[in-house]
Amino acid sequence: MIENDVFQKNGIILQRRISKWAVIGVATFIAIAYYFVLDTYLTDSENDQMGKVRVALKNSVNSATGKVFQGEQIRSFTGPRLYLAKNGVQEKKENTDKLLSANGASCTKWGVVTTIFEPSFAIKRAADLPSWCLVIVADTKTPKNYMQLLKELYEKQDLNDEYMMSGTGNDADSEDDKDEQNIDDDIINPIELNNVFFFSVEKQKEWEKSNGKVGQFVRSMPWRHFCRKNLGYLFAILHGAETIFDFDDDNFIKMNKNANTPVNILPQNTDPSTGETVLPNVSIVSQGPHVFNHHPVMKPSFDGTSWARGFPLDLLQKESTHGEVVFTKDIPYQGAKEEIGVIQYLADGNPDIDAIHRLEKPLPMTFDNSNTATPVLVPKHSYAPYNAQATIHTYNAFWATILPSTVQGRVSDIWRSYFAQCIFADAGLRLVFAPPKIIQFRSDHNYLGDFEAEHDLYAKSGKLLEYLKQWDHPDADDIPKRMEALWIDLYERGYIEKDDVTAVQKWLQALDEIGYEFPPLKRRFRNVAMMGQFNYPTPARDVIFWAQKQKETFDTVTAAGPFSDDVAKVLKESDVDFIQYEQEEHPGFIKPYENLASMLMRYKDSSKIEGVLYAHDDALLNFSSLSQGMYPFPSEQMLGTFEYKSYRDYGSLEMWSEERRMYRKQTYRIYQNGFFGNLDLNDKTHNDLDSLLTVHKKWYNEKYNECTKGQISLTKDPAFARFLEKDGSFLVPRFVQSDMLFMPTAFAEHFAEGAELHKRHNIWLECAVPNIVDMIHQQNEESFSWRKINLCTEFKNDKIRKYGKNLIDFCMSKDDAKGKEFGVFHPVKMMREGLKEYDRLLDWINLDQWEGF
Q1: Do strands 13-15 and 109-115 pair parallel, antiparallel, or not at all (unpaired)?
Q2: Which residues of 266-289 are buried (b: 16+ CB within 10 A; e: fewer)?
Q3: Same domain, residue pair 711 and 655
Q4: Is 685 part of a structural domain of the chain?
Q5: Which UniProt keywords apply (predicted)?
Q6: Number of domains in the chain
Q7: How confident is the model over 518-574, as pLDDT tens digits?
């Protein structure tokens, strides 16, 4: 017995201190031994299905070099592209009324399960859920008298939750087991089962004979495979499902302690301010990597590393995948910006972990289910494996329930989850893991057999997620097109086989035929990069969270700031792209445009990135306003928060008197010989800098004083000579707010040239940016285009500018605010607001919900 093991049966408390490297060590040892066995003992027989699996396993690793799976394209799909075709799918729909059940189900909440065994108490408990219907999908080995057996089960005594937590098997019918259960004999259950539907083999064969798309899909599903469950999803959707509980026959819904009823598996509240139905009190994590290990924040009952089946083994020791809970909030089941697509319940007892975990860690195990335990939201940019064992699917995620059939059952639901999340990110659908309302009283399994069946999870999941995080198909502008395109690409890289591509095409057609409505896309921008400028030292957690929020809208995000080496180390470990530099004497006054130039040059030859959007970390952006509601992001036009006009030869232009008066106060000329002059080419003062600075104060532009010396130096720089006016003067632009700018990469070299010149002469941001824009204009007369973005700001009233809500209220109460759409709100300090309020304000701004704020 291991010295540090502690087992307390009554509390189901398990603790074990395990070396950090034990998991990797055991996994590596087992993998090496496994491949040795494959190479030495397995034959290449393909006479049966398992033989084919073994051949595939053996061939997946080069025995001489140890070369691992790379996920590169190895073949091309030669079949039809039904949804990606120019005109899409335009076919007559068959009447599916004849497929409806004779006794006419009318539930909006459905449980779906497939089994080859006799009824279990897990299925009975699902059948007992109030206001839920249940469809049981049979396979060829399922008892034909299943419903009779289920009714007989109601005459037996249900398993006791505590007994299941302490037991190891699933044979609860013996007298000895009954004695151990110590349960109440006075149990009365109904046996009408009007809410339970047995989808028999015979009924499925009737569906196969259907002439429509449903029949085609049913015929494409192999018998004796986990994927028969797909028919159950289709059955539920056809019969009015709005929510599906996807579970296994060995996953038991927990019972209410004070009543003989299963617990509610669909918790929801109503937000009084919006009327939305929400999942309350969901934990939000700050997390950088593209893979999220949800087990640590769900607090497993032992010390050491824990992970779900399907989590990439090569990332087990990457602690940044654990994330950090930073606050809680309610998440809508359906919302304008985001909504819940999937809720997976963790399970106590023998939960959904892989064979390596089971061989290494103690069982049974539990997760925190105390009064303080909360669901956890997976960051939108991250992937986490969810299963088909205890999972809620909402209506807008029904299209993603299909299970691939050409992979092992232990792989199928995990692949499904990863494929789905790739498209979830562009549909505003979110994944939530919830504390255990389930006990998994697992049927007998051979761990080494599980290990063999899980081979693709170990060998391919890491590469799969690397591929999915960057996947896109620009021509796929709705969910069916994106789903078809993705599954074709995954077939071409060896994750699934051709039959799965055909099946998903038929699945999409079947959904369309039965009237399912696919949700619209809410796509992230992939054609522009987002750069955040941090002017002051900022904790790594806050930088990571800022990047995470931007990744909800942009695929490519970079943080730039005076990050300490310790913060930079954490950002690197968290896979946050960043630019690090030393703290400036005047923070944020030169580095922003230097960093923007660096970003533009990084992507100037990119086939993907067409522009860089830069904003300070204390600027909240209304992305809909910036993009004008268009997708992809309009990348040919520059954007800024100031009114741009060419500053060349204003003295010769006719302007309204008020506009001319404003510009006379806000600009002036510098000559190479030391003279200064105003807009009208008069009042020249020879070498009298003090007089000019005095004029600045008179014009209420004292900040010009920080720029003037550098501008004098710039005027004399030979490299700037071609940008001077006809009279040899530098017509200085207005001092403007420049905490946000969008610059197309087409102007990258010209922007970088201007930035380098202004940096060389130490010219502040607010003076440099408008002049760099003017320099670009001079060199790109025909292609230059500028759009002003409305700015909500206030710099004089500290009470107003101190908090974001005050600032927004102030801007919206102005007389000229009616009908105005603000694209930028500045300043809103993330560290002062706190991450929860920052998150709320940013989400609210991008929902355009001015009323009720």
Answers
A1: unpaired
A2: eeeeeeeeeebbbbeebbbbbbbb
A3: yes
A4: yes
A5: Membrane, Transmembrane, Transmembrane helix
A6: 3
A7: 999 999 999 999 999 999 999 999 999 999 999 999 999 999 999 999 999 999 999
